[in-house]
């Protein structure tokens, strides 16, 4: 199983981390592409550590990394991809939590594009729910040829989920966000969503603002006594 590495940022407070935010980049990028988001969210999350792992494979485009290959010629490649890469990411999350002495509910996941696919796939199948999942410009990957009802038996935990998407996305059309939210609802997994007007396949200030507040609220809820 590949060992993931990537850039990190320790808590702004200078103290021991009380939360961990893992940032999952998109196809053809690497962890350096997202680690700067940590600086945007540090004022809201001063006790959080951030890590942006590089995906395990060199990208087939010849630059950057990929969680799995995307040729867009095989309708099953996304489903096979998230299932193949999922255990590597899951093991990385467990190792990072253990290294920091944190519990599963002190973890937040943020994924962009292909990283969003990975974040949603893995978070729903972890034994314990994470504090929050933010999916940016991505989608929930479903098994090709099966309806959303097929998701429910695979869900092991229900984390808070925020989906954000640009309404002019030319790579993953905005309909993917609404279809993902509907599929999650079918499996009794509620999701909030944010639509960025006039934005393509990217992250604007509005999405950053909502995502940061969503992460902070998720950590606050998870810290309350049961």
Q: Mean pLDDT, nearest integer?
A: 95
Whole-number count of domains: 1
Number of strands: 9
Supply the CATH class. Alpha Beta
Strand content: 15-25%
Looking at the structure, what is the overall shape?
Answer: globular
Here the CATH topology equals Rossmann fold
Indicate the CATH architecture: 3-Layer(aba) Sandwich
Largest sheet: 7 strands, mixed
The parts where pLDDT drops under 50 for at least 5 residues are none
Report the order of strands and helices. EEHEEEHEHEEHEH
Query: If helices are DSSP runs of H or I spanning 4 or more residues, what is the number of helices?
Result: 5
First and last CA, distance: 36 Å
Radius of gyration: 16 Å
Strand order of the largest sheet: 1-3-2-6-7-8-9
- Give the helix/strand class: alpha/beta
How is this structure best described in words?
It contains five helices and nine strands; from the N terminus they run ββαβββαβαββαβα. The protein has helices at 37-41, 77-100, 114-125, 175-186, 205-223; strands at residues 8-9, 19-24, 48-51, 57-58, 65-66, 107-112, 132-136, 161-166, 192-196. The model has no long low-confidence stretch (mean pLDDT 95). It comes from Methylobacterium aquaticum. Keywords: Hydrolase.
List keywords for this structure.
226 residues, alpha/beta, 5 helices, Phospholipase, two-stranded antiparallel sheet, 7-stranded mixed beta sheet, PLipase/COase/thioEstase
Element layout with pairings:
Blueprint: E1 8-9, E2 19-24, H1 37-41, E3 48-51, E4 57-58, E5 65-66, H2 77-100, E6 107-112, H3 114-125, E7 132-136, E8 161-166, H4 175-186, E9 192-196, H5 205-223
Parallel strand pairs: 2-3, 2-6, 6-7, 7-8, 8-9
Antiparallel strand pairs: 1-3, 4-5
GO molecular function, one term: hydrolase activity
Family: Belongs to the AB hydrolase superfamily. AB hydrolase 2 family.
Domain Phospholipase/carboxylesterase/thioesterase: 15-216
